[in-house]
Amino acid sequence: MLSLIDTELLKLSLIETELLKLSLIDTELDKLSLIDTELLKLSLIETELLRLSLIDTELLKLSLMETELLKLSLMETELLKLSLM
Question: How far apart are CA 31 and CA 25, in angstroms?
Fold first, then answer.
């Protein structure tokens, strides 16, 4: 039969094992937290890329407007040439 001390040592050993398991779980939670932080960083980068894409779209619109203005300027030049004839 186990002595009282042996029984208590076994209980302590079980408690220690449970604490180690909890420590492992805590480590895994820390890893998940780090992953979450990285995902947030990626989300911020994605947001910035979307903002830059919007700026690019606006620049393209301005470029189209400039092209239209050049066409109008050419038409105006042609009209001036015709009026001088």
Answer: 10
